[in-house]
Amino acid sequence: MLALSLDMGGTHIGCGVVRDNELLGSASLDSERARSLESLLPRITEVLRTLLKDSGVTAEGCDGIAIGFPGIVDVRNGRILSTLKKYEDAIDLDLKQWAIEQFGLGLRIENDARMALLGEQYAGAAQGVQDVVMITLGTGIGGAAMMLGKLVRGAHAQAACLGGHMPVNYRGQKCACGNVGCAEAEASGWSLPRIVRETPGFDKSSLASAAQIDFQTLFAAARKGDAVAGAVQQHCLNIWAVNAVALIHAYDPEVVVFGGGVMQSADVILSFVEGHVRTHAWTRWGIPRVCAAMLGGNAALLGAVPLLSENLPTL
Amino acid sequence: MLALSLDMGGTHIGCGVVRDNELLGSASLDSERARSLESLLPRITEVLRTLLKDSGVTAEGCDGIAIGFPGIVDVRNGRILSTLKKYEDAIDLDLKQWAIEQFGLGLRIENDARMALLGEQYAGAAQGVQDVVMITLGTGIGGAAMMLGKLVRGAHAQAACLGGHMPVNYRGQKCACGNVGCAEAEASGWSLPRIVRETPGFDKSSLASAAQIDFQTLFAAARKGDAVAGAVQQHCLNIWAVNAVALIHAYDPEVVVFGGGVMQSADVILSFVEGHVRTHAWTRWGIPRVCAAMLGGNAALLGAVPLLSENLPTL
Q1: In B27-147, which ranges are continuous DSSP H helix?
Q2: Which segments in chain A show pLDDT lower than 50?
Q3: Do B249 and B158 have their domain in common?
Q4: Domain interval for residue B174
Q5: What interface predicted TM-score (ipTM) does this complex get?
């Protein structure tokens, strides 16, 4: 199967042409300062046309377009139900019309973490496994789950994609979602600066003079022995491990795949989470495998073929 | 459809004859001092025979026997995977053989909270709703979920039945399951006495002289103004509400049904949980209904017909 694929990230839009589990060509389009998704559509069209040409294939030869979108999406009717302060005009855009007019192709749109899970399950770290939980650590914490070979979606399309909003510390930090103590409120990109600043000893930490507090800065400072960085890193590892146990108890997976930029420190993260899962998860059948995503930024793009192949009510 | 139904509780075994959503007859069999399930089988057989007779129906007229069991059960192959210190010999018992020999009937066995959910969904508080979470508050906290009209079971038959083992307080109490801060470790029948005793002021509380500390004692003392009881009751309400939000985020239900003996205080519990869900759950589509189970101790028995009607690989 041949497909066009888009991954709408917070700062970039990934564009790809995929044949089955192979990325024939891809390009990244800066979207940081874009005022709307509509304003980007002409450039997206152009980039996809160029990719088709460079890959030596045609739109007519493709089976459809798949889009990974950062928000709550109902693939069954193609509706974007909730955005996260990015591409807010997407709710009212007729993307199906755009796909037909520009490429003569049908379109499916799905939550981006679900797309990444599909990609990793089809061509990456969870290849061939039917029961998978995906946790993407980034600005927020994205989640997705597959049970018995099917994506978990639920009645209102929001099941499993709120994996980062399991309340793991019920008297903890207020979350952007309205809840308290979500994994995301306790250990994600957006919540990290406040947590670091509120850690005792912050003013004497090397992080006090850092231009930006992100996971890369944090893990680097911890490696250099900074006590505040070390304590916060440990806190984040705890939260991610507990989040993994919550999702293991919820979805009964064989494999938990961690993705996101912070997985550059996969060694530290995986060994801690693995140990915690081994001692804390209630899984009499055995121990779920904990691993890092393999496809990096291409995971969601490679989710295109499994998404388009799925037996769904309508395109 | 006509069926025989068993609900194996910690202290009693419920026995019933059901026709569709109607209980034709039922009886309860004391199992508190039973040394094994095998030793109880002759009495169970006898009780079921009497119930059949009293109901004016025959075993030949029945479509099967359904059993709700307190443990992890794989209905697909009829195997009990894990017991909870009760009926431990059940793992090696050939219950199918018993059902055929004694009644000439096929048998299906399922986790008891899942059976209760089936009953409430078929004939009780969640009648006709396709997306339901059930939380049973008792000695432990049982869980079950139905998504898009199907029970959530997962790869190893343990999905959703660990709903009471969502870690909601990751630095909290050690749980019997090996995890830390599970809802069950924070607010269930078995964990309650320790929590009460560790509450500051306990020695001056009316609970210090109580023969037994259970939810009935706790809620009664709180109503009379006992400060320790009030504080612990509030703690339990918090935990149950947070647990509900975790399961709403996991399974995307329309309805959350609370069951168990403590629902005698349904007014206090539901109004608190409802308020918390309204303000804390991330559900753009609307607000999940929170309600009390309607069928009480008969819920699992009334799950028989939906369980036996399910399209499963083998009986």
Answers
A1: 41-55, 95-103, 112-123
A2: 315
A3: yes
A4: 129-293
A5: 0.95
